[in-house]
């Protein structure tokens, strides 16, 4: 497990001080987009087009193809991939199908810690390494604008609580020692799936940790980094023998209230559900 990391800078949301401005800017395209892209219980049906996709065979067919082909261009064949052999050579990189059917077994806290560390923890610092410490994913400007929260039973009592993953000391900070099943069910679409997942990792963006330097582009960097963490966490879960599914269907305001974050400078991006596959 990593040594304590004390050199990672945590920018407060008083970001405008870094922009040499007295006040926060009045117009903020990233903030407006982020707000407009949130899921709310009442409007979620309007914000997604799932029903139309199911009902329209032509749309489903073209959506299923999912990748571009340019048949008018010359083709250079690549050596065939022997999936059996290549899968054997790269077992850690062949992603399993998403899992949506978990056993009720709680995941051991030691392994949960390992999964968090493998996805967004801090690597032990080499004597000669300049701060900040390296992390499992690359990060624009090494600014690491994400924060992970864990909703799981880590006490072995059968009660799920909500914890912030503190990467400096590799500890969980208890935000709520108990989050009841009803509250979890109300947090998003697919309530049965949400309640059945032994662990949920919430990936939140603290945008100004990147934006103070990269401004609007920093917002894009935070989204990309969340994708990298999803992948890393999914593969880490797989290596621990767990199933995982990235999960967007949470109502942002519910998550942000639970995490006690403001939903503007520090806001929910996506989740990953974890558990042993049934
Ligand atoms: C950003 C993102 C959000 C997702 N949100 C959900 C979700 O809310 N519910 C769900 O059941 N699956 C969700 N998924 C999983 C996808 O449906 C799944 O990855 C896709 O169907 C491909 O299947 P596979 O992962 O089994 O290969 C999400 C995946 C990603 C990357």
Task: Write a brief structural summary.
The chain is built from eleven helices and six strands. It is an alpha+beta fold and 278 residues long. It has a six-stranded antiparallel sheet with strand order 3-2-1-4-6-5, with helices on both faces.
How would you describe what is shown here?
This protein has 278 residues and is an alpha+beta fold. The protein has a single domain, classed as NADH Oxidase. The chain is built from eleven helices and six strands. A six-stranded antiparallel β-sheet has the order 3-2-1-4-6-5, with helices on both faces. A hairpin with an 8-residue loop joins strand 1 and strand 2. The longest helix is centred in the last third of the chain and has 24 residues. The two termini are 29 Å apart. The protein binds flavin mononucleotide. The site of flavin mononucleotide has 10 residues, from strand 5. Flavin mononucleotide binds next to strand 5.
List keywords for this structure.
278 residues, binds flavin mononucleotide, alpha+beta, disordered N terminus, 11 helices, 6-stranded antiparallel sheet, NADH Oxidase
